């Protein structure tokens, strides 16, 4: 049996024990897809959420859909699920596959008197509400980026497999009258990248453990042909969005080729003077990602491949400063959506990013042995630091100001980051807010934000992290895995802004995975430097009693464990691979 352990390694040993697969991912049979790392696994539904008829007239043997099968039809099968339609009754059923997945659906149909193909309407949903919706309307269900609402024909004594989207729920409707359709199964064709979870995180707080693995799984689902941002919508290489995803990949999967493949695609698709994705900050994120992956993995040959483009990009960026050392970047001036209508925030964030980009550029020039350019870009960074943006009140831009040392991290944390609790957070820039809180030594506060903000999505039924999450929307809202009661809001369909209005909102977005790398870096305390040659272990347990886990390095997997003693000191045990320098 093909081992599915890489899917949720930490979850397996936390909740199911080694060697035992969680029911959602119980492997039934596999088919190699796309290339050696891509796997297609067929999953049975975990429950029936809703059905249009309980009378046994238009729908029979529905519970058979929940039984594990082999997907092969035969001429003599009995007690199959049956959909029976009349002019007045066209049956429908809503299924839950238990976990957000990427892929499609396979429907094998049995033998019947009429050999004409049967038309079925399929509606995929990341939430129950989305699967029950129609395209358009106030709640804005769409077929954009990936088809999730369409009609298929099911053959006589055969099967049909369709769909390529992100979903957890599926509604199936019979379209025509006079149908008597036996169905052997309605299986989810789950397509994912079969890679080991080299990193792990476990503590005495199950909520943090679940958040860590959920972030890892969110990114894994988006590791398709390239590193996407979303599996339902935003199936694109957005370079800025990649940064939190790459930090999660560094933490969980190590040095993976999908990162370089996606970075190179973005570079080649956007020759200078174009900005990547048309966004100046995204070109800066491209450079900062390269600095991060070199710090973690030390692949000098790959970094050298970027030298010509990188220097040209830095030269181009250096022309976007005025006489007062203020950035004047053109193109789409963007940090994230919640700040997109706040010019003061955008300028503050871009000024901070310019500083970080030129500092990183200077360090990479030193790696290339270009001492002249090292000094040049160091001077540019110092000039940029002479301008301190004013009037920003957003947490996103404030975090970047702290991380770039344009403003004091402790002051920023006290006056902006911790103000009004979780209001003003975003799933994308939430990662940088956590990083800024760590720089301000507010580890307890950051851990609380992770529990409450990312945990708030789990409380609503999330199994992957969302494109956006506003805690103000939670009041009187139902869960995504239930039919919304008449007296409650639909957390998925009734809210959202900008590009994520209603059901267009993606509930699996890789940019929201920040807590995974943050918990490994700051709670486990694993800090990698010098091209992956050194790791400094500096744990911050906060209110945790213990934490342990693993971390992929260029020399192999590092194992660390921490236990808080009665006097508050921490006992640390380290098992490091040969060749890795560990500073404790």
UniProtKB/TrEMBL annotation:
Stated name of the protein: Alpha-L-rhamnosidase
Annotated PANTHER family: ALPHA-L-RHAMNOSIDASE SIX-HAIRPIN GLYCOSIDASE DOMAIN-CONTAINING PROTEIN (PTHR34987:SF6), C, PUTATIVE (AFU_ORTHOLOGUE AFUA_3G02880)-RELATED (PTHR34987)
Chain ranges of the Alpha-L-rhamnosidase six-hairpin glycosidase domain: 198-523
Organism: Arenibacter palladensis
Swiss-Prot/TrEMBL GO biological process terms: carbohydrate metabolic process
Gene3D superfamilies for this protein: 1.50.10.10, Maltose phosphorylase, domain 3
SUPFAM superfamilies named among the record's database cross-references: Six-hairpin glycosidases
Alphabetized Pfam families for the sequence: Bac_rhamnosid6H (PF17389)
InterPro entries (UniProt xref): 6-hairpin_glycosidase_sf, 6hp_glycosidase-like_sf, Bac_rhamnosid6H
Domain of life of the source: Bacteria
